[in-house]
Fold this sequence. Notes:
This protein has a single domain, classed as paralog of FGE (formylglycine-generating enzyme) (Alpha-Beta Complex), CATH 3.90.1580.10. It has helices at residues 8-11, 16-33, 153-162, 195-201, 228-237, 245-253, and strands at 104-113, 137-147, 305-311, 334-337, 360-362, 371-372, 376-377. The chain is α+β, with helices and mostly antiparallel strands and 382 residues long.
Amino acid sequence: MERVLQSAAEKVLLTQTKAAWLVLALLATTAEACGSDGSSSLDPGPDADAGSPPVDGGSQPADGGGGRGNGGSAGTGAAEPEVPAGPSCAGLASTCQGESCCMNVITGGTFLMGQGGANSSDLYLDPDLFPEERPEHEVTVDPFALDKYEVTVGRFRKFVDAYDGTPPAPDAGAHPAIDGSGWRSEWDVELAGTRTEFIDRLKCYGGRETWTDEVGTDEDKPINCVNWYEAFAFCAWDAGRLPTEAEWEYAAAGGSENRLYPWGSEAPTCELANWYGCPAIVDFVGSYPAGNGRWGHADLTGNVAEWTLDLYYGYGNLSLPHDNPANVTEGSARVLRGGSFDTRIIEGMDANGLRSTSRASRTPDLPDPEYGFRCARSPASE
C-alpha cells in the first residue's frame, strides 16, 4: 500500500514537546536518506488509515549510511533534533572507517518485538524454539540516537583517563521516559576505586582484551572486558545511556521490517558479520558493511555482544508498557544482545545467536572478551 507522510500531530498522541522532536527526527532521517536526484529511500510514513501505528525511521540508504555526528548537521539545511554530545570524541585522533567513531543514527517507531510464529519474517526454524523470545508483542520506542559503531578503545580511553573513582550521580544515565532507569547509589561498589584498579580490570582472560595501556593499533576496535556497570558508567559520563532492549532490537530488526538478521534474511557469512571463524577475534568496528542494519548501524550482530539496560526476564512474565518498555525491576542478570566473534553453529543450526531477536543473560559484574556495548541518547526536549 502506498503510504504518505502526515503530521505527527495528526497521527501520534504525544505531548507537544515529544511530538515536536518526533517530527524533527523524521525530517532529519528523510534528509539523510535523500540521493543527489532528490529521491528518498525513506519509508514515507503511516498508512492513511486512522488506526495506523507511528512511522518508523525508514529504510537504510543504499550506501549503508544514514548516520551523523553528535549534534552535527547532515548538510541539507533541514531542522534536526539536538542530541547531547559527550566528551569521548572531543579531540579523538582515531576514526572509524574514515568517519567519526561517534556517528549516531536517529530513529524510533512501532514494531513487533520478539520472535513471531508461523509465517513470520523472523521465525527461526521452529515455533517451539527459544521460548524466551516469545510472545511477540507490539511496542513503540520514542525517537532515539544509537551509536553507529560499538564503543571503541579510543573512546573508552578518554573515560579511563578522566576516571578518579567517582561513581555516576544517582539517576545519571536514565531514559527520560522510564522511571528507575538511572544509576543507583548501591551500584557504586561495583566500580573500581582507582584508575589503576580500573585498568587492571580491563585485562581479562589471557590477553584477549582490546585495551592497551598505551595508545596502539587497536584504538578502533570495540572495547571489551567491560562489565555492565562499567558500560553504564561510561554512557552516563558520555552524556548518553545504555539502550533499552527494545531500542536495540528495533535497530537490529529494522523496525517494522522485522528482519531476521540486521541485514535481512540471508544466512550469516564472513562477509556479513564477525562470528565464529571470521576470524574468531575482535575486529575493527565497521569491518563488515554488507551486514549493516537498516539505518546503517554496524556490527549489531557479531564482533562483541552488547550490554543493554534491561534485566533479563521472560516476556510472558512481565507487564511492561506498550511505549518505551524496559525491565528495570525483575530479575538479577542483565540482557546481552547481538552475539559475538565466538558465536558458533549449535547442534547443526545456523548461527542462532546472531538473530535480531536472540537474547542472552549474564551476571552484570562479569567482564568477558566477548562483551562490549554501544550507547543511546535521547534528543533534547525543548
